[in-house]
Specification:
The chain has 343 residues and is α+β, with helices and mostly antiparallel strands. It has a single domain (32-76, 101-339), classed as HIT family, subunit A (2-Layer Sandwich). Helix content is 26%, strand content 22%. The chain has a 10-stranded antiparallel beta sheet, with helices on both faces. Strands 2-1-6-5 form a 4-stranded antiparallel beta sheet, with no helix packed on it. β10 and β11 (218-221) form a beta hairpin. Residues 22-32 have low confidence and may be disordered.
């Protein structure tokens, strides 16, 4: 059974996943996707995956059969398990939680060779709808404090299968990176009674030197202190704390916008490997809760997506110092992307 272990020196949790146990010979850098006789995510091979949890289907088609548009299945090798108890233990200075959670795969299309920027906007909308509906459902489980949705595109970005897919992992704690953002946003609101991300968005729009695109109610820009070349911050212009609260109309508009941004990246950087991560509100119904934990979160937080092309390697200095060395000027990266015409 997986565990979550706490590092008291670094103030971070680590998932020890027994389901993914590896020998030293397994831990080497791969130069190609895993070899498979038939892609388990392709239409017609539904029996190669665990039974589906959720799907969008053609009329009169049955679960776990062809005829789907988007399909969600449990990960065969889950980092965390929904069946775990989630009990908490203390062993001296060390804390541990039984590895309760969920790990799911969102298969974005039946088409093996089409990535998100290649798909029609309606298909992208269905993928985003899958994100929202799984967030809504998993947040009903008060054991889960956060659900992280992420996409690894390309082998060097962590994708083991070429078929377009993204993943989600539900955790019984709020991840460290998210918690830092939450605390910073809350502190800004306490001082100014304004959302920090709303302020950042308005400043970027007013200077307009790092904005790649602003349309349909959404904005994409290269962060002022970008950690990586061509890193992008994508968010709604109007305040919204949670992706759970996004309307169907907003999903449709965002599908067009996100496809456009990813298309620009693909064209300018020749289809680079990348990660994107959806940052949204934690589960405000999760237990136990502290009296003032989420009092202002609907006003102080703002959902967004970080897109990180994997163009440089993280080496010893970055790991040891926490600094990042970015060889690409954000203003120039934004200009390249801005000048690239959308599809």
């Amino acid at each position: 059974m997986p565990e979550l272990r706490y590092d008291p020196l670094q103030h971070r949790w680590v998932i020890i996943s027994t389901e993914r146990a590896a020998r030293p010979s397994d831990l080497h850098a791969s130069t190609k996707y895993n070899s498979v006789k038939a892609c388990p995510f392709c239409e017609g091979f539904e029996s190669s995956t665990p039974p589906e949890i959720w799907s969008i289907r053609e009329p009169n088609t049955s679960p776990n059969s062809p005829g789907w548009k988007v399909r969600i299945v449990p990960n065969k090798f889950p980092a965390l398990k929904i069946e775990a108890g989630g009990k908490k233990f203390g062993i001296g200075l060390y804390d541990m939680i039984e590895g309760v959670g969920a790990h799911e795969v969102i298969i974005e299309t039946p088409k093996h060779d089409l990535s998100l920027p290649d798909l029609p906007p309606e298909q992208v909308k269905w993928v985003l709808l899958a994100y929202r509906e799984r967030l809504r459902d998993l947040y009903k489980d008060t054991r889960f404090k956060y659900v992280l949705i992420f996409k690894n595109h390309g082998m060097s970005a962590g994708a083991s299968l070429a078929h377009p897919h993204s993943q989600l992992i539900a955790t019984p704690i709020v991840p460290r990176n998210i918690n830092i953002k939450l605390q910073t946003a809350k502190s800004h609101y306490e001082k100014k009674e304004r959302c920090l991300i709303c302020d950042l968005i308005q400043q970027e729009i007013s200077t307009n030197t790092r904005v790649v695109s602003i349309e349909n109610g959404f904005v994409a820009f290269a962060p002022y202190a970008s950690r990586f070349p061509f890193e992008l911050f994508v968010a709604p212009v109007e305040h919204n704390y949670s992706f759970v609260e996004v309307s169907d109309d907003e999903l449709e508009r965002f599908a067009h916008f996100l496809k456009n941004i990813l298309y620009r990246l693909k064209q300018v950087l020749n289809d680079p490997p990348y990660n994107f991560v959806l940052n949204t509100s934690p589960n405000i119904e999760a237990k136990p809760k502290f009296s003032d934990q989420w009092v202002t979160i609907k006003y102080d937080y703002h959902w967004h997506i970080e897109v990180i092309p994997r163009l440089v390697r993280i080496a010893g200095f970055e790991w040891g110092s926490g600094f990042y060395i970015n060889p690409s000027i954000p203003e120039e990266a934004a200009k390249y992307l801005r000048d690239m015409k959308s599809e």
